[in-house]
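U., I forgot to send this yesterday:
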Amino acid sequence: MKIENTRDLQPVQQSISIIDSIDVGAIQETMKKIAMLKAVVQQTLKQGHDFGIVPGTNKPTLHRWK
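Result:
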């Protein structure tokens, strides 16, 4: 089989960049909200009451209240 027209074999340039559709301002606002939530959680939860290290583990774990 002989290819006479190599133009038909070229890839089509139809790339859609996901970065072009991202609202950077919205991402910055979301990151601020996450930081605020983290600060509230750290100020509110008390070690030994709300979380602590379970014997046999080495990481703090949230206590489950019934």
